[in-house]
Amino acid sequence: MTDGPWLVVGLGNPGPQYAGNRHNVGQMVLDELARRTGSTFGSRASGLLSRRPQAAVAEARLGMLAGGAPGPRVVLAKPTTYMNVSGGPVAALAKYYDVPPERTVLVHDELDIPFADVRLKRGGGEGGHNGLRDTTKALGTKEYVRVRVGVGRPPGRMDPAEFVLRDFSKSELKDVPWLVDAAADAVELVIAQGLEAAQLKFHTRA
């Protein structure tokens, strides 16, 4: 691990009307990480790409090292743009904080993973996820870490785009806090012990 900061981005859409959508689960996870670190999100424009704020950002230390020393530096970010143009804020933040792709973590909803499962990977395809596609284009690489939060497949012939823009169902809601907590744990483990250790834990649990 290096001494440089990590950039952790939760993908989603801005505004209260989207806050409970499946598509916004990444931002729910960032809220949990901010709660754990006692940090507060604020707007950052400061020359990133435009005069308008592009993300809500919190700077913090995540966890503790052996001996009680503060954990790694992290920049927690929630883009304030819509999902399909997430790449600009991610790339701008990575440049501003001098964070390379290997220390950039995107937390996002994933249709191809069962609801309440968490999976992790670096690189690979975007699976039709517009937020990932735009981020890959803006960063010029696929080689960033993804914490993939399973929201399951839409029922019947429902359009996937419609499904992810709906809130979790009543039967799912009881498990959403657990899912968000697990995904936040996954982010912490990636940063503390590396991607392989996190994969070993989350990909082999019953």
Automatic annotation (TrEMBL):
Grouped into one coarse class, the protein's main location is cytoplasm
Question: What Pfam families does the annotation carry?
Answer: Pept_tRNA_hydro
The record ties this protein, via InterPro entries, to: Pept_tRNA_hydro, Pept_tRNA_hydro_CS, Pept_tRNA_hydro_sf
Site (Stabilizes the basic form of H active site to accept a proton) residue list: 109
Q: Which GO terms describe its cellular component?
A: cytoplasm
**Catalytic activity line of the entry:** an N-acyl-L-alpha-aminoacyl-tRNA + H2O = an N-acyl-L-amino acid + a tRNA + H(+)
- Location of the active site: 23 (proton acceptor)
Give the EC number(s) under which this enzyme is classified.
3.1.1.29
Spell out the family assignment given in the record's similarity comment. Belongs to the PTH family.
Q: Assembly and interactions?
A: Monomer.
What is the protein name for this chain? Peptidyl-tRNA hydrolase
